[in-house]
Amino acid sequence: MAGNKNSGGYRPNAPQNNPANVSATGGAGQSGNYTGFGYGQNQELNQSRVAGNQAMQSIQANTPKPQGPYGGINMPQLGTLMDDTINPSEPITAGLDFGPGPGSEALPKQFQNNTRPQENMQIVKDYLPDLALAAQSPNAPDSFKRFVNYLAGL
Amino acid sequence: MSDMMFAPGSYFDNIDKFANSLGYQNAAIVMELAAIPWASPEERDMFIVGLTGEDVKGGNEKYYIKNKF
Asked: Contact, A100 vs A93, CB < 8 A?
């Protein structure tokens, strides 16, 4: 039988003899999830799989585990619309164009798209006939009529 | 019917108070807030005062502007 002349025997250049060929993820062995300690460390534990597993579990239990992408960050809980403000030094109307605090010019640019003209035109389209009818009521306050006049002029 | 149309706490009364307190240019949010079933006109007014920091406007300005309607 004409075999490969390189087969068999100890080959110094074989992959298993190359010290650079080390798995980046390590190996879990064949007889359990115990990955053990480094060679020469805790030799008795290394020789006992049960005790080794217990030792590794106790070590892993004391290691802080990642808690998702925001683990460890103290995020404030989201409240409801009627909750007290969590920033009492800032007026609740900050960012709006009425009430105390800065107006919409203080908002980031992506929030500054002014859609009010379009919204108001939609209001005119949807509500103006009924509002105009109500404005003809003898009890309609002048302030209400002024608002309807404003919408009619848009 | 027309007597009740602008009764305190009615829908049109809400529109009047929100429009004159928040500004006519905020008509869209005025209509949204006016549609909320407020427990009472006082609760609604407290909301407006809390929002604007000013007294509620509208509803009591009689014969101030000659209107088209």
From this structure: yes
Model confidence, pTM? 0.50
Mean pLDDT score, A26-51: 61
For chain B, say whether A137 makes contact (Cβ under 8 Å).
yes
**What tens digit of pLDDT does each residue of A57-113 get?**
888 787 766 666 666 677 767 777 777 877 888 888 888 888 888 888 888 777 766
Number of domain units in chain B: 1
Count of structural domains, chain A? 1
A94 to chain B: closest CA residue: B51
Q: A135 is in which domain, residue-wise?
A: 116-152
Distance from C-alpha of A152 to C-alpha of A146, rounded to nearest angstrom: 10
Q: What ipTM is given for this predicted complex?
A: 0.83
Compute CA distances B8 → A99, A153, B49, B53, B65, whole Å.
23, 27, 16, 21, 21
Is some CB atom of chain B closer than 8 A to the CB atom of A121?
Answer: no
For residue B26, which of A102, A115, A49 has the smallest C-alpha distance? Answer: A115
Residue numbers of the domain that contains B21:
2-52
Tell whether B40 lies on the interface with A, counting CB pairs under 8 A.
Answer: no
**pLDDT given for residue B45 in this prediction:** 92
B23-68: pLDDT as tens digits: 998 998 999 999 999 999 999 999 999 999 889 998 864 433 444 4
